[in-house]
Amino acid sequence: MRVGIVSIGYADGYPSNAPNGTPVMVAGKRTTTVGRVSMDMLAVDLSDIPEAQAGDTVTLWDQALSLDEVAAKTSILSYNLTCSVARRVEFTYI
User: Fold this and answer.
1) Whether the model pTM is above 0.90
2) Residue 88 CA to chain centroid, in angstroms?
3) pLDDT (tens digit, 9 = 90+) per residue, 12-29?
4) Burial class (CB in 10 A: 0-12, 13-18, 19+), 27
5) What is the CATH number of the domain that holds 28?
6) 14 domain-assigned
7) Is the pLDDT of residue 90 over 90?
8) Which residues pair with 4 in a beta bridge?
9) Per the domain annotation, does 94 fall within a domain?
10) Total structural domains in the chain?
11) Whole-number Å distance between alpha carbons of 58 and 72
12) Measuring CA to CA, which residue among 48, 79, 40 is closest to residue 24?
């Protein structure tokens, strides 16, 4: 399995209980997390995204990946997911 490391973790407000298979987007393509979320990073499966490379955008939720879907996978209310994001995280509004 090809694995990518994303520089966000539970210290940034991403749920520490997010199980394997929590959906994320890498370079606009859907994939999932692998392993446990650590303080400052999480791992994602890049097996089906061979063109993925360092510096690619990773999206945790947006219009293409519903916040409610992520919330259901983590058993956390979507409202609580958004309220838990730490100040050190950069937001992009579209």
Assistant:
1) no
2) 16
3) 999 999 999 999 999 999
4) middle
5) 2.40.37.10
6) yes
7) no
8) 44
9) no
10) 1
11) 20
12) 48
